[in-house]
Amino acid sequence: MGAVLEESRKVARRSLLRYLAASPILAGTLLSQAPRTRAEAEEGDVIAAVNDAIDVFDFHATARQKLPPAHYGYMATGTLDDSTLRANRTGFDKWQLRLRRLIDAKQIDTSVELLGQRQPSPIFLDPVGNQEAFHPEGVKAAARAARATDTLQILSMVTNTSVEEVTALRGAPVWFQLYPTENWDVTTMIVQRVERAGCPVLVLTIDSRGSKRDTLRRLSRQDTRDCSVCHDRSVPNNALMRKPLFEGVDLASLGQLVPLDMTWNFVHRLKDSTSMKLILKGVVTREDAELAVEHGVDGIVVSNHGGRSDPSGRGTIESLPEVAAGVQGRIPVLLDSGIRRGTDVFKALALGADAVGIGRPYVWGLASFGQEGVEAVIRLLKAEFELVMRQAATTSLRQITRDYVVRAG
Asked: Which of 72, 38, 41 is nearest to 366 (CA)?
């Protein structure tokens, strides 16, 4: 009898909702009050000023409105059907927080030591190339923002500004991200230059072996501009020729930026060629994490290139626990790809990361409002992270352990 009554109630509720939906006035009111889905919330709202931002997603919506379709597509695309890009976000939903109570959390310390240097926050700026596609000041604005917020910055090898100028604008040494290239002489020339510029850490990208970026291609079709001046494909390495880092470098025999035959021998050769610390960016399995330690690298980044190259359909937060288990605390573990909220930062640290990188979020800020936008994104994420630390009653990063997360469901 109870089951029959419950089913009757369900039918009545459905009938009422259909009636209300048929009324233009009531339907509009109901829709305006309905909670947004996660996907809708992550679209954000277009804003007119930096201080209007509620979260980093508002910069996403604003950037999408301001950017040409092809430039937005270059930033937003994943590889193939974007499944890995989506997994980088949905992976965080598979973990929930366990929050403690009645512990003094008035004073918290968010600093972390990475490779001998104390950083005031575990959040750093990931390497992003061609930032001038999003704002005229590009990586210069990002460097100034990193300086204003005292945030670690990793510079992309395909930056449009010299490593020396970025270092001066940052006001402190930056880390440098390296694509290995097929030509060892070109690689060593770049490594020597960035070492002379004062970069203390070399971040070798090992996860980019080509990709098929469908979203970029579809959005590029909507762009009516003549892009041939900047994207002349008839000249080999035309884009690289305009990069300051490649001035004076013979690119005739460069070939691909990432050689398909790269092995651990390349890692050893690179270590022997420089006094900089060496980090591998793109480790996503326990086996490779163990090998990284065995081969003497100084740290790793759990990364799938923001879903731009890796077709696994697996988010980095899902890869992190096994990577951390392989490392066993012997070298620093960093993570990027998918960080959007303070809760994301906390979950990553609880699952074994020492620090986390952001890429697209600060590019959204850059495209929206230049340096101000980048600063706002950094400060929003730092503030959210501090809020979560207080809610969890963790007063330092070393207190954020696996005890504070549990698998959802």
From this structure: 72
Collapsing DSSP to helix, strand or coil, 355 comes out as: strand
- To the nearest 10°, report the CA torsion of 256, 261, 264, 270: -30
User: Does the annotation mark 305 as catalytic?
Assistant: yes
Amino acid at 367: A
Q: State residue 343's pLDDT score.
A: 98
> Dmax of the chain from CA atoms?
85
The residue among 179, 158, 157 whose CA lies nearest residue 262 is: 179
- Contact in structure between 215 and 84 (CB atoms under 8 Å): no
Proportion of the chain in helix, strand, coil states, percent, rounded to 5: 50, 10, 40
Residue at 53: amino acid letter: A
* Whole-number Å distance between alpha carbons of 176 and 278: 10
d(CA 126, CA 337): 9
> From the candidates 60, 71, 135, 305, which is the catalytic residue?
305
pLDDT of residue 255: 65
pTM: 0.89
- Chain centroid, CA 11 distance in Å: 46
Tokens in use for 55? 């979260």
Instruction: Tell me the C-alpha to C-alpha distance, in Å, between residue 165 and each of 95, 106, 160, 248, 349.
Output: 41, 40, 11, 17, 32
